[in-house]
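In this section we walk through a basic example: taking a raw amino acid sequence and producing a predicted 3D structure, encoded as discrete structure tokens. The instruction is simple. Fold the sequence below.
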Amino acid sequence: MATTNRVLADTGARYPIIQAPMGYIATWPLASAVSNAGAMGIVATTGGLEFAREELAQTRSHTTTPFGANVIVSSGSGAVIDAICDAGVRFVTTSAGNPARFIDQLKSRDIVVYHVVPSVAAALKAIDAGVDGLVVEGGEGGGFKSPDDVSTLVLLQAVRRAVDVPLVAAGGIVGGSGMAAAFALGAEGVQMGTRFLLSRESPVHPSYKAALLEARETGTVMLNRTSKPAVRALKTAVAQRVLDNGGVLAPEAFARITELYFGGDLGASVACAGESVGLIDEELPVAEIVANTVEEYFDVMARLAEQFASRSF
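The resulting token sequence is shown next.
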């Protein structure tokens, strides 16, 4: 008897693969390409109201398939929520704050809301606030993180034991084998950031992409552990200077982040990246990334099904 995948039901996507809402990067060229490939493209709204309106409109004009949006709770606004709803978006992820701030406004417009969580306590709090599902984000992922980071492998099991809502696994996943592992631990979807960062449609500068491709699995470091939020980033000269100064990021650490992203100046800012850079060895079109992930997932599941049928390892 077939089972219903709740992430597919909630997103309307063909595949339970979600693109991470990387700030300034998760814009219409990437989000629309991901949705057109059958996965769930997400528009980041970090640039403010007018930025969000333009990106949502452009994404809508470049895909006829469902796409979503992300709201950073601590810096979002009711006006941005209205812009998302007015754009016809029906799936929103919230992060970096208590989703209770916007949950009533979102639910009044029939929006499905998943909240990003780094711990069981945060998961329970988000469910109490009324979210529909959770993005369970392990410390392997790039960008802003909890300083008390837990690996995706452990966190996903712990959250699944505590809740029964649909879970999306995030952190360290770049393809079908990681997706199969996440599903075995109770996820019904996966979110990928670094893998889509290294796609043809990703808008970041070739120099940034080259640095990502050169990095190994040990090529990232967690900064700002004694403060909030912590940040996982590439081990660049900038990151090393932060480490030499106690690992604490200065308030202006990200003031020139767009010069790194789009100008290729690796000395301009901290270069966010997940540990999964060590699993990626080429830049590919989004459609190929999605297709490869799905194919590998079913290949792994078929092998496991054979082991199950034979009751052998």
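Looking at the output, two observations stand out. The chain has two domains: 7-203+284-307, 206-277. The first strand starts at residue 17 and ends at 19. In the next section we compare this with other chains.
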